[in-house]
Specification:
Elements: H1 2-15, H2 22-46, H3 51-64, H4 69-82, H5 87-100, H6 104-126, H7 132-216, H8 223-253, H9 259-266, H10 286-295, E1 300-305, H11 313-333, E2 339-345, E3 349-356, E4 365-366, E5 369-370, H12 379-389, E6 393-398, E7 404-411, H13 438-442, H14 457-489, E8 491-492, H15 494-499, H16 506-512, H17 518-521, E9 536-542, E10 552-560, E11 563-572
Parallel strand pairs: 1-2, 8-9
Antiparallel strand pairs: 2-3, 3-7, 4-5, 6-7, 9-10, 10-11
Helix pairs in contact: 2-3, 3-4, 4-5, 4-6, 5-7, 6-7, 7-8, 7-9, 7-11, 7-14, 9-12, 10-11, 11-12
Length: about 575
């Protein structure tokens, strides 16, 4: 019983899909009542005797058309061939099938079966009353107008609604993606700011620490002055520590952005900005870095080898940052040690090398005071990413003399053209720290390419509708021509009637007479004079109105024993 109950419940849900809200219940109920009443009226007026069963059948089929559109179409088409009551429902069934049947094969099959059934039932019903060709033509034209044409319109509306829903969903998705891209752009910009703070401010604070450390051991200073310098050095170290923490926070929060994009943004500022805080320079700015380190009391040797060649802006900026990071690390980890910087212009790339030996005294020991080296652990990682983005590479490691060597190979033709990734902020911008691209702030990313054009469903439906209308027009023209031809085949002209003589052989008379058409002559046998006994007669319409007759003018030819025994021209009242 449970299986039967579940099967019944599933069948009901399939035939009457919900949810059945109040508006849907009212609409479906009113529609069923109206169509059922219209079918009842048609059957009563046509005196078919099928009014009682057809009206409730039409109402039930109307309610089932939403869940079983193909089945309702086939059933309505079969019923429409027998009587005229279901014809208004055929319009609704065609609409529902076109709008709700998504599989093309099922849709085409249901309409084909529906046409076959409406034609077959019409032929069986009217076989004795009309020619088969006429019945088939009327069935085809009526089915095209009442079922296929509404189906095309329903199909167009359904496809248009589906297309609008898809476009709306795509628009919402694009808005979400734009918000995500804008968020990632801000994260990349935050990462770039963190990288610039790490490189520029870290370098300047390292120089301050080196300067203050040198002053601390200056014996010409008084104890009070030396104490003030110590406070200054400790403040610089604390500032470096806080800077590292801020950079770490910014770097951690920007990990949601792609690694390449984040590092690309980190390479952000363009050339030509001085080496101050937040600034950036190219290869020419390396000399200013060298002078700043020398002013701090560090021995720095700077050498250029090879023929100088132009360098891409992103590669020059990367070279500047590599030297800056190397000097900063040398000041922090090997204070007082000499530093050797070399720029070698090779045939295919610029080689940047920074080497320093080990510290002459333990790290952090100055004037009997221990200091803590502040390191964020991100400098070399950022340098490798900078070099990679311009097509180069970075090598860093200790030397046999307990020193450290940092070398980079930067090609002259770097990857600067890749969307401005290596040379500036992602998405475009001036490269100034803290600047977020306008499109990122607005939540609208640049359009890369126009989406492919979608073919409107109206085109296919319009073509289908035009084909249906042309087919119906062709059927109308064919019907008119066939009607005229059938009328000629059923009419005997007055000259022909006068030329036929009684007593002429039957075969000769039949050759002279038109072929006839039962559609026009089947009712002519009723009424008129009684034909001769044991004779066979043929009936035709006459083309003359003579003697003021009303009704049909009939011509009758009766044959007996192979000859024409009578010809008669008379009037049959309607």
């Amino acid at each position: 019983m449970d299986v039967i109950a579940r099967a019944w419940s599933k069948a009901v849900r399939t035939a009457l899909p919900g949810p059945w809200r109040l508006g849907l219940v009212l609409r479906e109920g009113i529609g069923a009542i109206l169509l059922g009443g219209l079918a009842l009226m048609i059957e009563v007026l046509s005196r078919s005797g099928l009014a009682v069963p057809v009206a409730p059948l039409v109402a039930v089929l109307f309610l089932l058309r939403r869940g079983l559109p193909a089945t309702v179409l086939v059933a309505t088409a079969a019923a429409s061939g027998w009587c005229g009551g279901p014809l208004p429902l055929l319009v609704c069934a065609g609409w529902s099938a076109g709008a709700r049947v998504t599989r093309v094969g099922v849709l085409a099959g249901s309409f084909t079966v529906g046409f076959v059934l409406i034609t077959a039932s019409s032929v069986v019903k009217d076989m004795d009353q009309a020619p088969v060709k006429l019945v088939v033509g009327l069935s085809l034209g009526g089915f095209l107008l009442l079922a296929v044409l509404p189906a095309l319109w329903g199909r167009y509306r359904a496809q248009r609604r589906a297309l609008m829903d898809a476009l709306s969903e795509r628009n919402e998705q694009l808005l979400r993606e734009r918000a995500m891209v804008a968020h990632q752009a801000r994260l990349r910009e935050r990462h770039r700011i963190a990288q610039d703070m790490h490189d520029s401010l870290g370098h300047q604070l390292a120089l301050i620490s080196v300067h203050s450390g040198a002053l601390e051991v200056d014996r010409t200073l008084s104890d009070r002055q030396r104490e003030a310098v110590g406070v200054l050095r400790l403040a610089a170290v604390a500032a470096m520590r806080e800077l590292r923490e801020v950079v770490g926070v910014l770097h951690d929060e920007s990990t949601a952005a792609p690694a390449v994009a984040g590092a690309a943004a980190g390479a952000g500022a363009g050339p030509g900005v001085g080496p101050g805080v937040g600034g950036a320079g190219g290869v020419d700015g390396i000399e200013q870095l060298v002078e700043s380190s020398r002013a701090a009391g560090t021995v720095v040797a700077f050498v250029r080898d090879g023929e100088r060649r132009p360098l891409a802006a992103s590669a020059g900026h990367a070279a500047y940052r590599i030297v800056q990071e190397a000097l900063t690390n040398a000041h922090k980890h090997a204070p007082g040690a000499p530093i050797n910087i070399a720029l070698r212009y090779e045939p295919d790339a610029l080689v940047v090398e920074v080497v320093n030996p080990g510290a002459p005294e333990p790290v952090g020991v100055r004037a009997g005071r221990a200091t803590t080296v502040v390191s964020g652990g991100q400098g070399l990682t950022g340098l490798r990413e900078r070099a990679r983005l311009v097509g180069g590479m970075v090598h860093a490691g200790p030397t046999p003399e307990a020193g450290f060597r940092l070398a980079a190979v930067l090609p002259y033709e770097g990857a600067e053209g890749a969307g401005g990734v290596a040379g500036g902020p992602v998405g475009g911008g001036t490269g100034a720290p803290g600047e977020v691209p306008d499109w990122a702030l607005d939540g609208v990313p640049p359009v890369e390419a126009a989406p492919p054009r979608r073919r409107s469903p109206a085109i296919g439906c319009a073509i289908g509708g035009a084909v249906v209308l042309l087919a119906v027009l062709g059927l109308v023209v064919w019907g008119v021509v066939a009607f005229i031809r059938a009328t000629d085949d059923s009419t005997v002209r007055r000259p022909l009637y006068d030329s036929v003589e009684v007593g002429t052989a039957e075969a000769d008379v039949r050759r002279m007479l038109p072929p006839g058409n039962s559609f026009f002559t089947k009712d002519l046998e009723r009424g008129g004079p009684t034909p001769p006994a044991d004779s066979s007669c043929r009936y035709f319409l006459s083309d003359t109105d003579g003697d003021g007759w009303e009704g049909d003018n009939v011509v009758r030819f009766c044959f007996k024993d192979g000859v024409l025994v009578e010809k008669k021209h008379y009037n049959v009242s309607p």
